[in-house]
Amino acid sequence: MKYSALISSKKTVTAVVSMAVIAAAAFLSGCSHSASANAPAASAAVNSAQSVPTVELSASQLNSIKIEPVASYGFPVEKEAVGNIDYDEDLSVQVFPPYQGTIIKMFVELGAEVEKDQPLYTIKSPDLIQAESNLIGAAATYELTTKELARAKDLYTTNVGVPQRELEQAISDQQTAEGALKAARDAVLVFGKTDAEIDQMIASRKVDPALVVRSPIRGKVTYKNAQPGFFVQPGNPPAPYSVADVNLKWMLANVPESESGFFHLGQSVAVRTLAYDGRIFKGKVSKIYESVDPNTHRVTIRSEIADPKNDLRPGMLANFVIRVDGPVEAIAIPANGVVREPDGTMGAWITTDRHTFTERIIKVGLRNDGRVQVLDGLQRGELVVSDGAVFLSNMLQAPPSD
Question: How far is CA 176 from the centre of its chain?
Fold first, then answer.
């Protein structure tokens, strides 16, 4: 009985194994049949047996892309930096009075355009009053000595007993008074008074206490701190007015110490600002500062920017591009022909028959004027998609058509 039981058990195991084998074979057969049923691909498909993605386009889909051969392009070597706009300090003047005094009147407002020698304000200057008083006194003395000399000459020529010594003394006094008058006139001229104004003061015997302070340059009033009654002194800030030539601005930018050797005086500069998107202001490098910031290890580069319409404002954030070397000849493709894949690699689509397209991983370098330098992955003359690379990449991820 025991032996019969063992035989029966062995037969049962054999039957179970046989059924499992049959079921597995049926499953594999069904999978093979299912794969064969799904074998026909859509108009854009990837060959899973290959590692390179490939896409086939229909005639209508070809209208969504452009194709051109890979060619050479000259890439200028450029450096960029961020900086701030400022007035040209060499063309910006703080207008102090030449002598101390109290402001009497202002003639221009902040932001006004002024010409050279245009009056900005007047002050009542004790020094001017003293100089004008001396002028009037010298003029009176000169007039008196001139009359005395004329009288002495008249008496001497009529032989009425005027000695030669008295005539010579009158001549000396008149010449001394003439010299004193000339010195007094020069002293008043220093204050900015004209010859006509000086003649008027001498004729009227009245001083003119108003000292006119004029703009030393043509430009725009960029600062004003003047009110009637303010006491001002030469060189004692703040100045009542500041005038700047706004046709030329400075841009001060900091560049890495490691790149400072690329910059030289006179290099052309292209400046862009957030306020004028897309507009380029031209200039040149005017100074490279000697010191290096020990904290940031950056060097300040100063550029002179032409701004004839006075569009740039001090303090504006700006970006400049400097061409530091001649163009580098390299193969390149349009930027629209380069696509960034999800894994971060850069790809381009090539074709040989203008119908089937294969993606190739490339290494890119410089960019300029809508062109991208290709360091590796493409050869000159190969046909590449120049516009619409993203369209092809999106087709790879699209669900298959039914």
Answer: 62
* Domain covering 126-208 in this structure, CATH number: 1.10.287
Q: How many helices (H) and strands (E) does the chain have?
A: 5, 21
Q: What angle do CA 100, 179, 149 make, to 5 degrees?
A: 135
Strand, coil or helix: 96:
coil
What's the fold here for domain 54-75+328-397? Answer: 2.40.420
Single pTM value for the model: 0.53
Half-sphere exposure at residue 381, Cβ-oriented, CA atoms within 13 angstroms: 0
Question: Who's near 253: CB < 8 A, 6+ residues apart?
Answer: 81, 82, 83, 84, 300, 301, 303, 318, 320
Given a contact cutoff of 8 angstroms between Cβ atoms, the answer to whether 357 and 386 are in contact is: no
**249, 305 contact by CB (below 8 A):** yes
110 closest CA partner among 220, 212, 215, 214: 220
For the chain, what is the mean pLDDT?
Answer: 82
Average pLDDT, integer, range 189-200: 87
The domain ranges of the chain are: 54-75+328-397, 82-88+244-327, 126-208
Q: If one looks up domain 82-88+244-327 in CATH, what number appears?
A: 2.40.30.170
pLDDT tens digits, residue range 86-127? Answer: 988 888 899 999 888 999 999 999 989 999 999 999 999 888
